[in-house]
Amino acid sequence: MSVNSNVKRITTESFRKMKEIGKKISMLTSYDYTLAKMVDNAGVDAILVGDSASNVMAGHETTLPITLDQMIYHASSVVRAVEHALVVVDLPFGSYQSDSQKALDSSIRIMKESGAHAVKLEGGKEIEKSIEKILKAGIPVMGHLGLTPQSIYKFGTYQVRAKEEQEAEELIENAKFLSDIGCFGIVLEKIPSELARKVTEQVDVPTIGIGAGAHVDGQILVLHDMLGMTHEFSPRFLRRYLNLHDEIVGAIKNYVSDVRESKFPTDEESY
What we know:
Blueprint lengths: L11 H10 L3 E5 L3 H9 L4 E4 L3 H4 L11 H12 L6 E5 L9 H15 L3 E3 L7 H9 L4 E6 L5 H4 L9 H17 L3 E5 L3 H10 L4 E4 L7 E4 L1 H4 L17 H17 L11
């Protein structure tokens, strides 16, 4: 990829400065070259190559099946498209939880083989050793608290997390821990808006919300959801900016019809 010298690259330091001056951070997911290029050209600050590719791209029910090799493939495709945004890549389930050396090895593979700028992982103090080892290697880390999809079988539901006082206090403590240990940002997923506000006020690093209300430092959505390419998934926090599902299906139906009725190609579309 040839980076345009006129394009200012977003960095982890950019994140910190944006929080300091109160400038909201925009973040979207991407998993392939073509859509990532559009997202980057539109001026999004950061792109998450999320393990949600397991759902969106592969059709799995959860994020658990996606492998490290598959994440690297998607990340490589995105990095080749991007000149402006910070590219963050999810460490997939099983690549960091139980073994800090495995966490480091997984992170190094992502950084070396895809060219990404940072990794993201789910959890707090319970994965302290993994986070420390990755950070000591000079790899930027983004945290993720609240609803953590890789733990879905533990939770048993995708409902809002930390509504009870004890879990809310634990989340605040974990957010402070992630900030203090050196993470450059924290995703807060599906937690009460007031709790997200408290976390945002008490940590030094940017908070990025998804279903966490407006009182955070930035927002993230799954690209395919906000463009209306998916239509089965309709959580309260999702705003669809387009209805591409119906538009794409309609266009394909028109193509099928034109082929069957010999309306495509015309003489002008032939050699």
